[in-house]
């Protein structure tokens, strides 16, 4: 029997709408406990799990009520499972072998299932314990004790004379950078990547503008703060153009002139031209991509260094001089580089005050350095001296020249973190002693102490995340750009530092985030929240293990997981930023060594009778992680090929292991945040070929926020494809000549069914693709006359074309007679139907290219496709009148558009049916008689193209009319009666070309 998840009734669109709400204020509070790279929306996970357990014939409205889809924010409420559903959940077991930050297992627990969550890395395993195990085991008492002991830690920091003397009490954030000794003039120059301090807008205009200005004073660079809010009463009318801040008006001129007279500004700070006032924010003096630093003292450009530190303007294989200087600094040679503070940020009455940092401020920083130097000389084990993976220069900045983890922190940050580590150790002992004194047995007291210490350690990690020399000051949001706010650890020249008491990134702030998370989790998992009828206590097991070689000794009713993909974030290497601190805070010290305390299996491995410390995750686990990372195979000549093969093998092994743990009638559900064909080949190869599983359904679910650092191109910005798999019932082989007809038939019939049910866009595309794959994955092997076909051949040559043609032909069947002969017409129609006006990444467009046998470069040259380049990526969009916006309905503007495409509407020479279509759309703006006249002219030379163009218009118009009538008149769906309203809605949504197609068809007959 099929499950509800496999049925057409599964409410994909409603789940997606609620999932997209889980960002900003709607985010689950526990997500804020610590940064993690990917977290699946809880309502999506809940709906998928429940859908995978319930039969396909359950009432759709009952399902929605059960998972709380009617709630404004479903994740804030536990599921409400009715008594008649209880048999589908009671005693059922869920496995997630790639559990990540725990969205899937958490929702499994909330549904009353017995849950097993597995993670390879110690860091993630510990996070999972904090998310799943401790809240369920200890409940709300955790909140009180985490709060109490968190306050104890902050009180100890407050009274610590070594910490107290390092910070001013009224500073919220310090902004600092590196200084480099100029090889030209011998003086120190700061490397400043951004001089902006505040560039904040609201709906009324700019509300805060401030920046730094460097000035020479003797042999030093001093920083002045230009705060325009202090100089001008109203900055809302400012026009910021690049680095220029422009004000227009006589009042601004008078105010600025007065500020110059009063000494608030210097004459050189501002330029006045008539009634125009211009402030110029200095440009960055360091450009890493060009290997260039400009000395702010002498103005000379600094380029390269040889191994002895001699400067060269050109040097083959030489290091960027700044990189050389930083390497020397980390080696203990401070002749070439040093740290300095630029600005202090204070908070007053809800506003930020920017003040230049003084020499005394920098001296406090250097004072902490002396204490750190003493620790290093003594070999203090609380200094994280573990090696960073130098091969991981894609994601961990090589410019910093750091080789050990402590080198990512300035001395004050490092000293404070070490103090917190030692205080957490002390808390662990105190909590355990306290609970034993209260009568708890030793085992439970130890586990409780472990839980409290783990949450406090997580707060420490969040503090470290806000406090490293690879953070940055975000002038547009007035916040700290955190350590890993990109897909790695990137170099930032204006780093930030928050004192432990700061509201910006201090321990007090991070402890509050932990408390909110623990409150949420204990509430979600407390017994008082249990909503299932007559359920006994369900269980959770959090295991540190390898998903590729699991041997759990049990089988599961449902496996739901988000497996890695080839070019995933290098979790092993990056999360060592956390690991080295967790290990210290949660272990003990004896005879100058770390020894096991809490989570000993995460930080130590048993070798004979001894527990041996695991120095770093990358040294222990890198080659066990399922991903393509050539750096992990530096010793191999063909490291790229080796890395690809490594990923494919481990990915397949993981699917085989999941099959072995799945009950015969069980369901496997995989999220996959990749939509490019290469990734689908990996997925199908692993699941079908290697694990002998059959796909029965695929749906696109919203899984990543649009600003997520792990999100993909436009088509897949916030989308994962959720695939449903079952064990193959029998091993059969088939010839592709036989199967091809079945694939095409299934694609067309399922497309027709999906369209009738209201599916559109990605829902339609992947629903039909899954139907085609269901036919393919029934068989063990598929052959042609030449022999067995590869997965790539099957997908590229049969599944993708059948999917696209199935959708188009299903619409054509509804519309009536006609056909699309050319690949260009098929491409244009499919793009228009599936993606509308969206831009597609180079990866995402491959599927359409393969399905229609077209080439993007040829489509660009023929005016069908337009390439859009940005600094970091390449995207494509259809070259359509929609690019004009509402101007598409203006005759003159449309004529300009045609000329831009080298189409002359007076003497047309169209290259293809898309050109003909757009010519006809232009003529439709000129009236019925002109359309008919021009069609007859075009038919004399391009009869086939004219018929194909009109058929494109019919297909696209029919498709969009069907979508919009469902919204306007869902019961009767009388398209003719609501034609004007459909046009208005299309125009409002930016589908101007569809409006023109409908007008064209109205003139020639065949209006939709």
UniProtKB/TrEMBL annotation:
Sequence ranges assigned to domain DUF1156 in this UniProt record: 10-57
GO biological process: methylation
Coiled-coil regions, chain positions: none
GO MF: methyltransferase activity; nucleic acid binding
InterPro entries referenced in this protein's UniProt entry, alphabetically: DNA_methylase_N6_adenine_CS (IPR002052), DUF1156 (IPR009537), N6_adenine_Mtase_MK1259 (IPR014455), SAM-dependent_MTases_sf (IPR029063)
Name of the protein: DUF1156 domain-containing protein
Taxonomic lineage of the native organism: Bacteria, Thermotogati, Thermotogota, Thermotogae, Thermotogales
């Amino acid at each position: 029997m099929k499950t509800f998840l496999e049925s057409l009734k599964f409410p994909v669109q409603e789940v997606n709408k609620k999932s997209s709400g889980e960002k900003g204020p709607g985010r689950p509070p526990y997500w804020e406990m610590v940064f993690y790279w990917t977290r699946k929306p809880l309502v999506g996970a809940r709906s998928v799990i429940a859908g995978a357990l319930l039969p396909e014939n359950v009432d759709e409205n009952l399902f929605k009520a059960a998972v709380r889809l009617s709630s404004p924010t479903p994740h804030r409420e536990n599921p409400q499972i009715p008594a008649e559903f209880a048999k589908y959940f009671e005693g059922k077991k869920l496995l997630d072998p790639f559990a990540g930050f725990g969205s899937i297992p958490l929702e499994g627990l909330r549904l009353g299932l017995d849950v097993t969550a597995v993670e390879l890395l110690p860091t993630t395993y510990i996070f999972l314990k904090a998310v799943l195990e401790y809240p369920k085991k200890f409940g709300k008492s955790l909140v009180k004790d985490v709060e109490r002991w968190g306050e104890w830690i902050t009180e100890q920091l407050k009274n610590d004379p070594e910490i107290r003397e390092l910070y001013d009490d009224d500073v919220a954030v310090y902004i600092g950078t590196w200084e480099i000794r100029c090889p030209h003039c011998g003086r120190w120059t700061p490397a400043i990547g951004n001089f902006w301090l505040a560039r904040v807008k609201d709906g009324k205009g700019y509300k805060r503008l401030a920046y730094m200005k460097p000035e020479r004073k003797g042999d030093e660079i001093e920083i002045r703060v230009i705060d325009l809010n202090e100089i001008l009463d109203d900055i809302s009318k400012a026009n910021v153009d690049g680095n220029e801040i422009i004000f227009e008006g006589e009042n601004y001129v008078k105010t600025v002139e007065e500020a110059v007279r009063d000494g608030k500004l210097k004459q050189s700070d501002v330029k006045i031209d008539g009634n125009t006032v211009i402030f110029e924010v200095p440009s960055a003096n360091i450009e890493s991509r060009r290997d260039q630093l400009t000395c702010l003292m002498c103005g000379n450009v600094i380029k390269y260094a040889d191994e002895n530190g001699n400067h060269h303007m050109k040097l083959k294989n030489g290091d960027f001089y700044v990189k050389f200087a930083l390497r020397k600094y980390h080696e203990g040679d401070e002749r070439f580089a040093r740290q300095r503070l630029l600005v202090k940020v204070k908070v007053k009455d809800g506003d930020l005050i920017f003040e230049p940092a003084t020499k005394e401020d920098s001296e406090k920083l250097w004072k902490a350095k002396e204490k750190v130097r003493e620790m290093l000389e003594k070999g203090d084990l609380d200094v994280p001296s573990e090696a960073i993976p130098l091969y991981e220069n894609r994601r961990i900045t090589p410019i910093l020249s750091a080789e050990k983890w402590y080198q990512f922190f300035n001395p004050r940050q490092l000293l404070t973190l070490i103090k917190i580590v030692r205080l957490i150790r002390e808390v662990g002992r105190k909590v355990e002693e306290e609970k034993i004194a209260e009568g708890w047995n030793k085992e439970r007291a130890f586990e409780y102490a472990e839980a409290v210490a783990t949450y406090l350690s997580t707060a420490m990690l969040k503090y470290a995340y806000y406090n490293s020399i690879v953070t940055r000051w975000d002038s547009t949001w007035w916040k700290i750009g955190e350590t890993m706010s990109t897909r790695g650890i990137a170099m930032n020249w204006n780093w930030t530092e928050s004192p432990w008491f700061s509201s910006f990134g201090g321990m007090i702030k991070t402890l509050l985030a932990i408390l909110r998370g623990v409150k949420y989790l204990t509430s979600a998992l407390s017994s008082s929240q249990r909503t299932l009828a007559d359920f006994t206590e369900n269980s959770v097991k959090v295991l540190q293990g390898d998903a590729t070689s699991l041997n759990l000794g049990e089988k599961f009713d449902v496996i739901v997981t988000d497996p890695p993909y080839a070019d995933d974030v290098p979790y092993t290497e990056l999360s060592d930023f956390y690991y080295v601190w967790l290990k210290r805070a949660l272990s003990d010290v004896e005879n100058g060594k770390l020894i096991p305390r809490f989570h000993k299996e995460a930080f130590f491995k048993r070798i004979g009778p001894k527990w041996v410390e695991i120095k770093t995750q990358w040294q222990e686990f890198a080659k066990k992680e399922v991903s393509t990372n050539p750096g992990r195979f530096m010793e191999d000549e063909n490291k790229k090929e080796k890395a690809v093969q490594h990923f494919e093998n481990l990915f397949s092994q993981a699917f085989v292991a999941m099959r072995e743990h799945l009950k015969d009638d069980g369901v496997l559900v995989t999220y996959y945040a990749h939509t490019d064909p290469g990734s689908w080949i990996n997925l199908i190869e692993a699941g079908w070929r290697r694990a002998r599983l059959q796909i029965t359904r695929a749906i696109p679910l919203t899984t990543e926020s649009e600003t997520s650092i792990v999100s993909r191109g436009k088509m897949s910005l916030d989308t994962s494809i959720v695939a449903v798999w079952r064990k193959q019932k029998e091993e059969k082989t088939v010839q592709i000549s036989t199967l091809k007809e079945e694939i095409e038939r299934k694609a067309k019939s399922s497309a027709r069914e999906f369209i009738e049910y209201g599916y559109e866009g990605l829902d339609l595309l992947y629903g039909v693709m899954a139907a085609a794959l269901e036919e393919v994955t029934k068989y063990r092997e598929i052959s042609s006359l030449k022999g067995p076909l590869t997965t790539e051949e099957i997908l590229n040559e049969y599944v993708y074309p059948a999917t696209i043609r199935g959708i188009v032909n299903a619409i054509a069947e509804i519309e009536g007679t006609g056909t699309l002969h050319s690949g260009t017409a098929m491409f244009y129609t499919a793009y228009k139907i599936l993606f509308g006006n969206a831009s597609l990444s180079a990866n995402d467009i491959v599927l359409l290219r393969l399905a229609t046998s077209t080439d993007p470069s040829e489509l660009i040259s023929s005016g069908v496709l337009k390439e859009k380049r940005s600094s970091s990526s390449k995207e494509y969009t259809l070259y359509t009148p929609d690019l004009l916006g509402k101007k598409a309905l203006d005759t003159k503007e449309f004529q300009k558009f045609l000329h831009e495409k080298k189409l002359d509407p007076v003497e047309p020479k169209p290259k293809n049916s898309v050109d003909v279509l757009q010519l006809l759309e232009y003529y439709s703006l000129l009236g019925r008689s002109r359309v008919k006249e021009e069609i007859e002219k075009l038919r004399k030379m391009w009869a086939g193209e004219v018929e194909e163009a009109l058929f494109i218009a019919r297909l696209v118009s029919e498709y969009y009319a069907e979508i919009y009538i469902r919204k306007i008149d869902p019961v009767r769906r009388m398209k003719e009666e609501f034609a004007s309203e459909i046009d208005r809605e299309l125009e409002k949504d930016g589908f101007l070309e569809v409006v023109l197609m409908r007008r064209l068809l109205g003139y020639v007959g065949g209006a939709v």
